[in-house]
Amino acid sequence: MDSKAADDNEPTATIEFDLRDNGRKKLLFVGKTGAGKSALCNSLSLPIEESDEFQECKIFPESANLDIGNRRTILSNIDFLGQPDKKVSFIDTVGFDSTEKKTSEVAEFIVKLKDNCDYINLIAVVVSNPKRLEDSLMDTIQLLESMFGKDQFWKSVVFIISNLSQSDKEIKKRSKRSVDDDNLIISLKAEIQGEFRLDGAIDFPCFIIDAHFDLDNEDEKARFQNRAEMLYTMLVDGERKHVSVNDIKHVVGKYEGLQEALRAAEIKSKKEHNENKRLRKERDALLKAKKKAEKNAAKLANDIEKAEMELEDVKRGNTATYEEIRQREQEIFLMRQDERQAREDAANLNWKYKLACLSLLVLACGGAAVGVTAVTAGAVASEATILEALVALKNAEAVKIFLASIGAQLQPIMIAYIKKKLGF
Question: Which of 31, 86, 315, 423 could bridge to 126 as Cys pair (CB 3.0-4.6 Å)?
Answer without folding.
Answer: 31
